[in-house]
Amino acid sequence: MTTPGQTTASSVEGTPPAWFQRALATPGESCRVNVRGCDIHYLRWGDRSRPGLAFIPPSGGHARWFAHVAPMFADQFHVLAIDPAGCGDSGRREAYSQDAINAEIFTALEHAGLFEAAVPPSLVGHSAGAQWVVRAAQAHGERLLGAIAIDGLRYTELDKDQAVKVLKAGPPAPRPARVYPSREEALARFRLAPPPLQPVGNDYIVDYIAAHSYRETDGGWVSKYDPAQVATIDLALELRDALKDLPCRGASLYAEHTHLAEADVAERMAVLNGPTVPVFIIPGTSHYPQIDQPFAFVAAIKGVVTGWIAAR
């Protein structure tokens, strides 16, 4: 017996399971919009009349981190997955800021028509993307139904959190992008960062993400990610009690095996944000729940957002 979302016999044999193939075959659109002089790319699925739901990847990630799960929301939502500047297939900026990310998110929502539905859109951000969506909601939450942070809000500094030292050190000094002589060598070097605290399995999902993480140049293959974009993230400890004060709804979902929190995170965050803000752990997950437990990831987010809609 296999756990939903975990590696199946067909994936072990080299063929991704049917659900994954159906998700990637779901009709959608690849769209672009100019935001403050930068070309911003996003993916879109679903009926424009339905409530909007927009996914924001982690720093170093891209929209296709959600391409296998986003279509599973399209029966109820108008779904976007956005590449912020410096990520995926979007352009790069000379300087990155939260204000620019806010503009990128809300311009993409407008361009795709998410504000035209009867219900305001919701944002979902993973890891550093969680910081971005909560700060975007602080600035413009009156235009949103809610913002969901996925394994991205710290309540303290933990020894197991490898990112603490990195973020305290500040943005790294600029250096030339590493060039791989072939696409195969680039894909072979792909790693999830930070490393998950448990094996994520589902290699077919990781392989798909890796396949969209590099671009060809004259000299070989390089990462699509601009490392300078890390200037937009920090420990964000001031956000630990911010959800209760947003102009929209807020929620924070955590991985069971996360470097950001301990097992009592729901209790700690409830003390900080009160009983009306949903905070819970998605069982069986690492820091990458959309990879190791995609069905649980979808169910958790659907549960939160449909609950908000029902309570309007």
UniProtKB/TrEMBL annotation:
Q: Which Pfam families match?
A: Abhydrolase_6
| A Gene Ontology cellular-component term | membrane
Alphabetically sorted, this entry's keywords are:
Hydrolase
Gene3D superfamilies from the UniProt entry: alpha/beta hydrolase
Q: Which residues form the AB hydrolase-1 domain?
A: 55-300
User: Which domain of life, per UniProt?
Assistant: Bacteria
| Record's signal peptide | none
Record-level Gene Ontology MF annotations? hydrolase activity
Q: Which InterPro entries match?
A: AB_hydrolase_1 (IPR000073), AB_hydrolase_fold (IPR029058), AB_hydrolase_sf (IPR050266)
The reply on keyword Hydrolase is: yes
Xref: PANTHER family = HYDROLASE, PUTATIVE (AFU_ORTHOLOGUE AFUA_2G14860)-RELATED, MONOACYLGLYCEROL LIPASE
Q: What is this protein called?
A: Alpha/beta hydrolase
Q: Specify the species.
A: Mangrovimicrobium sediminis
